[in-house]
Amino acid sequence: MRTLILGGTGTLGSAVASACDRRQLPHLTTSYRGASESAPLDVRDADAVRELIADYQPEATVFAAPLDEVAGIANVAKAVAEVGGVLVLFSSPEVFAADRRAFREGDDPQPAGERGETFVAAERVVRSALPERHLIVRTCDVFDAARFGQVGRMIHALSRFDPVATNPRRTVIPTYAPDVAELVLDLLRHGHTGTFHAVGPERHTPFTFARLVAHLFGYDADLVVADELAGGEVPSRPFLDRTRLKTLLGPNALRRPADALRAVRAALTEGSRLRVAA
Fold it and tell me: Is the pTM of this model over 0.85?
């Protein structure tokens, strides 16, 4: 399956690229500045988007670029509609306002803020342009072992004995990026389309997640301090029902945060762990 990954240097984009490497799938990554081995692409440039997709002829186009405005995804959706293939959009639980009930994929969006409205608009663009050829994956709080990711920054601070201020009240859903990448490729391989909720099985606060990182990586958990102002005015994550995904791929498609962090720890040699912390 030839895959084009737009935003291939971000957390999700790089995870999809790595998953393609493991499966020996041909793929091409892009980034805004053409970093590393990625091709340069500004998704707001409709002509450049159309030319790249027409030249590469991907069977799947994965939109993992930052979704700051709808124009970029609209350009990509139009080009994929013309050339062919499936378009994957990473969306967010922010399409719903925080509530005590669990939202299902078919529930009407009710965003609470401007960012949520942007995700809702992007989803509508994709569904309208590609009614039978889209895969919308709502996920959030993704993490991996990248140096500049949230876990890497925590390890860096903790290794220097610096305090890590985190919010003890806001709720988040830590989700392991490599697991999200693998399930996206599984859904594509089996021809599934539509909308899926792909978030981790546990809810945390940034405070409890940071203490979990400290504990599992052997640092002093007391360096993680509670600060109700940390992170600014970011709302708690809404509950998302994951029944559809679990029915198709099983209950373990997304690992618990502790299990995912253990996998990260096991994969890091002492030298690479020090480089992450440096």
Answer: yes
